[in-house]
Specification:
Distance between the termini: 22 Å
Structural class: mainly alpha
Number of helices: 4
Number of domains: 1
Order of helices and strands: HHHH
Largest sheet: none
Number of strands: 0
Radius of gyration: 12 Å
Oligomer: single chain
Strand content: under 5%
Helix content: 40-55%
Shape: globular
Length: 62
């Protein structure tokens, strides 16, 4: 899902997705700070993936 938010194709399985996403991160994949550069608020706000849209709704009490 995170790859799709970035406009990249998702992998075939979780291992493939991790191999594609982890090199894009600024640090360890277990650190939330590693995702900040790739997934700023503007990127997440513009994402149309239904799971991200629903997450935004839940976080804003809509």
């Amino acid at each position: 899902m995170l790859l799709e938010v970035l406009g990249k194709p998702a992998g075939f399985d979780s291992t493939d997705c991790k191999e594609r996403l982890h090199p894009m991160l600024s640090g360890p994949e277990t650190s939330k700070e590693s995702y900040a550069d790739r997934f700023p608020k503007g990127v997440l706000d513009s994402a149309q993936k239904k799971q991200i849209v629903r997450l935004r709704q839940l976080l804003s009490n809509e």
